[in-house]
Design brief:
32% strand; three-stranded antiparallel β-sheet; 63 residues; mainly beta
Length: 63
């Protein structure tokens, strides 16, 4: 089950997988792919964050 703790842009991705941009009031935005340890890119709107929605299904994505 994915961890639904919001991550701010510039933080490192804790797991490899698909991350969805979430607005400050809960609106959903674009989806990105990030590998474990990669820096999350800037969001398209100020105050937004990322949530892991689909972790990678291989051993390199576990963590």
């Amino acid at each position: 089950m994915p961890n639904n703790k919001p991550l701010k842009p510039g933080n490192s991705a804790p797991r490899s997988g698909q991350y969805r941009q979430v607005g400050p009031r809960g609106g959903l935005g674009r989806e990105i792919t990030a590998t474990k340890g990669e820096t999350l890119p800037p969001t398209t709107k100020q105050g937004s964050s990322y949530k892991l929605v689909d972790p990678t299904k291989n051993k390199s994505g576990q963590g």
